[in-house]
Amino acid sequence: MKRIFALLTILAFIQISVLAQVKSPVYKDKNAPVETRIKDLVSKMNLEEKILQLNQYTAGQNTNINNIGEAMKSIPAGIGSLIYFGADPEYRNAIQKKAMESRLGIPILFGYDVIHGFRTVYPISLAQACSWDPALVTEAAAVAAKEANLSGVDWTFSPMIDVARDARWGRVSEGYGEDPYTNATFGVATVQGYQGKNLSDPYSIAACLKHYVGYGESEGGRDYHYSDISMQSLWETYLPPYEACVKAGAATLMSSFNDISGTPGSANPYTLTDVLKKQWKHDGFVVSDWDAVNQLIAQGVAADRKEAGLKAFMAGVEMDMTDNIYFQNLKQLIDEKKIPMAKIDDAVSRILRVKFRLGLFDQPYTTIVDESARYLQPESKAVAQKLAAESMVLLKNNSNTLPLTASVKQIALIGPMADNKANLLGSWAAHGNEKDVESIAEGLQKEFDSAAKITTAKGCDFDGNDEKGFAEAVSAAQASDVILVCLGEKREWSGENASRSTIALPAIQEKLVQELKKTGKPIVLILSNGRPLELVRLEPLADAMVEIWQPGVAGGSSLAGILSGRINPSGKLSITFPLTTGQIPTYYNMRQSARPYAGKYQDIPTEPLYWLGHGLSYTTFAYGDVKLSTASIKKTDKLTVEVEVSNTGKVAGTETVLWYINDPACTISRPVKELKYFEKKELAAGAKTTFKFEINPMRDLSYTDATGKRFLEAGDYFVMVNNQKVKFTVTE
Ligand code: BGC
């Protein structure tokens, strides 16, 4: 009897453990290590389930309540990811429930383009870099992540860290300018804001570095066009921001549309596997850009969709964004032994790794929070305000036209941007709503209240040739003490598929300013645009100019604060403004010409209007002499350079000191100057402070060759700051 009882107990125990195992496999155990969970799950997946993980579909585009059920039916429960166009967490949770209740219960990864804010829209990325305030950019990205996460988004297709030097390309607005170091610095700051300390922290979302790599080089600024990138410029210009952000832990990358020496970014085994996975040891995954796999056919490297899928997958693109090629072809390619199972398992593991790290298996559903507590919270708006103010750049200020003094009693507020809200949001404004935006007119009205009378007249539209509004604008100008002319670009003039053959504003806007100039009143140009502009005809007509970019929800009040003097402008350009479109490409870190004294344009000056780093303040800063801790160092030593900066004006102000390096003679020629470090500090009127830069030779003086190998040469170098250039020597 005893024996039978013991046997029964053992049997019951075995049954319980078997049941427990069935009920709760290791991959569902949140305390098990991620790699163990991945291995366990992959071992349980069939081929169909694996292939589904490698695909991304869309959801939520159709918000018609009658169609939602239909859309949900067409989404396979085992799909790897969805681009979630909606912002309704309950709808998202309903889709997720289907996935969690399917055979293995693998959560779907919901992605979306959260580029410069979700509902609290911040300035465009190009503007953010003009703040030279990475900590603030991190705060903004964290707010965007929280709003997105509470709306059902786990993953954003951002930051874009494509170095861009051709302002005709509409996507210059989406990155951090023409310099690898600023793209790296603000890219890292943004990744840190989205991902937080840990991907599984509440509100953290996964970042996606894009567009890997070299998209900014699109020929002639024409989007989706061929890009001719040498291996040297790949390594020294385009890859460094990616390397920095991968090191900072970015979870995913998006492969680009463009070519790299004849092999498109989405079919490039060198960049996707050799560099990213083998050299940099990235263990997350790569998603193709929208239709990028299919486009390999148009780009002339694949004969059909199947071959396109084979090339992209074997190169190292793990997830196919929306074009359904992997779903339709991978099985056959495996059967034909063109794709090994080990490669499929690796790709699936990479995608699962991101899902596990995000905590999606353990917490697959979005917490439901009322919309009023989700968006536009006071602290989020305060960040939007600060970032908008810090990213605006005072380009010109003759005879202290700005800030406006108390003697200004009549303000004429003219131009198509004066009372416009939607265009201040910029491109890729996620769920931004124009009703949340403070227009320039509203901002000014609040700021000046009864201190000055503001008369608003549109004058003309953004383009076209209707001059009927000129008369009203001129008469408002005649009655004013100062004319604020608000010009710029519509939001759809920059961003994706928004190339322009000229970066000048349409002639009608320039003509409006010419007419206003005839009144003889001081003119302040306020520019809102997504790219540098050709200002060769406008700049001479202006007494002052403020570049406000596309500043987001808080643009109006931030600008108003600058105009009144409540805010002292501190932004500096993150991208050079060429004098004319014909000067493109012009960027500060170009190579020296063989004849620096010759080869100039015969018809226009060769210098741009404003270099990267240009930006004025209402106070003045005086730089003392640059001091070096020593004039000669060994390769393994460090050198400290410092400069004392004094606020010599009457008001407090904030100065950003940009430190550059130049290597005048090197095995591989170096740019005339390269930004290596920057620091921003506020100084009270009359105060002085020391800015320091510690030069680490291997980090700051080395260069890479066309294979990515780093070298540091002994010899003379220059450190450059403001208008000083000081020599030092590096010895063996
Ligand atoms: C763009 C990407 C974007 C993706 C998803 C593509 O057309 O190039 O930047 O993330 O669409 O919306």
What does this structure look like?
The chain is an alpha/beta fold. It folds into three domains: 28-358, Alpha-Beta Barrel (TIM Barrel); 381-583, Glycoside hydrolase family 3 C-terminal domain (Rossmann fold, 3-Layer(aba) Sandwich); 621-731, Immunoglobulin-like. It is 32% helix and 18% strand. It contains 21 helices and 27 strands. The strands form seven sheets. It has a six-stranded mixed beta sheet, with helices on both faces. It has a five-stranded parallel beta sheet with strand order 4-3-2-1-10. It has a five-stranded mixed beta sheet with strand order 19-27-26-21-22, with no helix packed on it. Strand 26 (715-721) and strand 27 form a beta hairpin. Helix 8 packs parallel to helix 9. 52% of the residues are buried. Bound molecules: beta-D-glucopyranose.
Beta-strand proportion = 15-25%
Mean pLDDT: 95
Total number of helices: 21
Helix content: 25-40%
The end-to-end distance, rounded to whole angstroms, is 87 Å
Ligands present: beta-D-glucopyranose
Question: Which parts are unreliable, with pLDDT below 50 for 5 consecutive residues or more?
Answer: none
Number of domains: 3
Major pleated sheet: 6 strands, mixed
Structural class: alpha/beta
Give the strand order of the largest sheet, numbering strands 1, 2, ... along the chain.
11-16-15-14-12-13
Oligomer: single chain
Number of strands: 27
CATH C-level category of the largest domain: Alpha Beta
Radius of gyration: 28 Å
Shape: globular
CATH architecture of the largest domain: Alpha-Beta Barrel
